[in-house]
TrEMBL record:
Name of the protein described by the UniProt record: Uncharacterized protein
Highest taxon, organism lineage: Bacteria
Length: 238
């Protein structure tokens, strides 16, 4: 049995277990299958012919779980900050092959929980609700606690205690961001996020998402189709 056929059979087995948890063999056998498929896939991604076949599975297989398993290998997961050494390995992955690309900590806004509301009309571009508890990562340690930050069209940020409700929900995710002129890295980042988070099923092929670039209090808000806006984020924002 060739590598891709073995991968497909294994992914179908994992999908069957996910669709019917009563048929699951338990964590030991499940993990053993995942480990075996991982070893096979690591060899397959170095072979262009295997990559082409895995790509076809990712695009056309009728089972969503199988498609996601295949996409995890043709769109390798970008490690999240602050794991710079893992980022270097990702940049040198045979399907990435970008070498040393400068990167900085940023935040991508992904459809998800109710922690962020995409407004986009009137004077408010984005409303980001901020938790009462302390931030878990460096990216959020300059944000005020509670209420919400309203990113306004005039380039200011207002901290409000009574957030405005909005029509859609978003989830802020810590990511590495790349220079604007590094199109391959940015494209791979978007492909990874859409693949790994299952956004392709709900929102179609990878496309630009709202992003906050930079660290510390000074950030750049990037919205698809609009010029970047610079903001100063501090606990004293009002």
């Amino acid at each position: 049995m060739d590598r891709v056929t073995e991968l497909l059979d294994g992914w179908r087995q994992l999908a069957a277990w996910r669709h019917d948890w009563t048929a699951s063999p338990g964590p030991r056998k499940w993990n053993a299958l995942v480990d075996r498929l991982t070893r096979i896939a690591e060899e397959a991604v170095a072979d262009p012919a295997d990559v082409a076949r895995i790509t076809e599975i990712a695009d056309t297989d009728p089972d969503e779980e199988v498609r996601r398993n295949a996409r995890q290998w043709i769109h390798p997961w970008v490690p999240r900050p602050p794991e710079r050494e893992h980022l270097d390995r990702w940049l040198r992955h045979p399907l990435i092959d970008l070498g040393d690309v400068p990167a900085e900590h940023g935040i991508m806004l992904v459809p998800g929980t109710e922690s962020l509301t995409w407004v986009g009309t009137g004077d408010i571009l984005v409303q980001l609700e901020t938790p009462e508890y302390a931030a878990a990562t460096e990216a959020w340690d300059t944000l005020p606690r509670g209420g919400a930050l309203q990113f306004r069209r005039d380039g200011t940020v207002r901290h409000v205690t009574d957030p405005r409700p909005g029509p859609e929900s978003w989830d802020p995710v810590d990511v590495w961001t790349f220079p604007e002129d590094c199109a391959p890295a940015n494209r791979r980042l978007l492909e990874t996020v859409h693949s790994q988070w299952g956004l392709i099923e709900d929102f179609g092929p990878a496309h630009p998402l709202p992003m906050i670039r930079g660290t510390g209090p000074r950030r750049m808000l990037h919205l698809p189709g609009q010029a970047p806006v610079e903001y100063l984020l501090t606990p004293a924002v009002h």
